[in-house]
Amino acid sequence: MTPFLVWSATAVAVLVALAGLASTLARRRIGLLHLAGAAVLEVLLVVQAVVAGAALAGGQRPPETATFVGYLAGVVLLPVAGVLWSRTEPSRWAGTVLAVASLVTAVMVWRLVQLWEAPGA
Amino acid sequence: MPEPAGTRPGGTAAGPGRVLVAVYAVFALAAGARAAVQLATRFDEAPVAYLLSALAAVVYVVATVGLARGGRGGRRTALVACSVELAGVLVVGTLSLLDPAAFPDETVWSAFGRGYGFVPLVLPVLGLLWLRHQAEVAAGQEAAGEEAAGEEAAGTAPEDGPGRA
């Protein structure tokens, strides 16, 4: 869990969430900006999953390995699910759907950090 | 892209409802995964708390499905699930504060969902309000439909009325 990846993923997730909420407030649908932001977030998460996977393969084990792997896999799917679910919404609420997915992603990233740094490893 | 006017589909999974379904789906997954891990790895430590986690997960799954499907049946399913959810978070939240020894490990509903930013406490209220609104919309549409059908039978229906292809 490198601090750079964690912080940049958090920052991008918050930006996507703000852009989503802004489009809801402006009564607009989501646009290219939102999709690009979600794509950047997804790339960061995939890189993080590879880094963490390599560390796991290298013998590092967080105390709750099963939970950690579950979060690691789940967090990669979240932005994709958020984009798909918001793309099927033709109204301004699409942005809020994407914002929810992004914020949950940010929370899950920090939960991953917690699990990784938990004592007893 | 501006929001297209007048093309918004109704139903429990459209508009704000889509946000609600998204949040419910997240909680269904979170509670389900948590319960699965707890039950599989350390059931003996706190069976009551872990079974409650599993119950919460089931309630969230049912509510998600009910809201996503919509219609009369979906609304009824979601209504039951949201009611159970509200009762659950209130009862478990109160008990977990009064008698912490009975809940040695956290559940989604412990301390009114404090571990999840109190979203578990707010979510069923929003769900019930949304379902009430949707029931009113559906009742309004039904009444309008009957009215239009009556007018049509009397030969006075407007050209663009519902039921005319």
TrEMBL record, chain A:
It comes from the Bacteria. Keywords: Membrane, Transmembrane, Transmembrane helix. The chain crosses the membrane at residues 6-25, 32-56, 68-86, 93-113. This is Integral membrane protein. It comes from Geodermatophilus aquaeductus.
Automatic annotation (TrEMBL), chain B:
The keyword Transmembrane applies. Residues 151-165 have a biased composition (Low complexity). Keywords: Membrane, Transmembrane, Transmembrane helix. Residues 141-165 are annotated as: Disordered. It comes from the Bacteria. It comes from Geodermatophilus aquaeductus. The chain crosses the membrane at residues 21-41, 47-67, 79-98, 110-131. This is Integral membrane protein. The lineage of its organism: Bacteria, Bacillati, Actinomycetota, Actinomycetes, Geodermatophilales.
